Amino acid sequence: MRSRIVAGLVAAALAAVPAFAAAAAQAAAGPAAAAGRTALTWYGHSTFVLETPGGTVLVLDAWFKNPKSPDKDAAAKLEKVDYLLLSHGHSDHVGDAVALAQRTGAKLVGSSDLGRALQRMGFPEKQSTFETTGNVGGVIQAGDATVIMVPAVHSSDVNDANAHLGGGNPVGFVIRVKGGPTLYFTGDTDVTQDMKLIPERYGRIDYMLACIGGHFTMDPAGAALAASWVKPRTVIPMHYGTFPVLTGTPKELEAALHGRAKVLVLEPGKRTTL
Ligand SMILES: [Zn+2]
Ligand SMILES: [Zn+2]
Prior knowledge:
binds zinc ion, alpha/beta, 16 strands, 9 helices, seven-stranded mixed beta sheet, Metallo-beta-lactamase, Chain A, single chain
């Protein structure tokens, strides 16, 4: 009882000094204290690391060597990756996938066609089975995240120095984090009326990770139209500024959204809690 009173007094004192309380909370933050929160780190282009409250680590499209990446060797440094969510086979989305899977044992979440193509390039077969690969509409359990493959309008061939392999159809992902937010990662796609079904079928989207660069995908106006259908709380722009032809900017997205959703521009390499 006495200790409860003391704890109460300490809590009251801290609450009376908000700045100190905030600093104490900050000091307590760190990898261990981050448990219970969902964290997202963008590495430029369409590559993200998503950490769930339960400690599952998911990589979304693996091209850590992209020109905007703050650390071109990041793929070789990630301590733990449980799942690799690959939207399609283009090299700007799977560039580091095979090496990352070989080193970490991460399982492929994506289309089975893409899985077969990547196996021919060295992706470990036992990490690319029907347990985690499927097709549009498929629901995959990835640790404490539930991942649903949704349509994307694009292409998906897989190239290496010797071959062009069919990678099936491209996909996007709806990711429901247990005890955390629901994200929609569009992959590479134009705006499509299929997006109207996403909130109807999968519920409220908290964060929409949307391509905005144009040329190969939606531009900011297209992404804003898509957001008007998906109705996310927040749009996180991606797939822009990497190459000169990807001209769309977050500012243009913000203007086109007319306040319908917040825009969160992530700084490459900076871990953000959601
Ligand atoms: Zn592509
Ligand atoms: Zn792309």
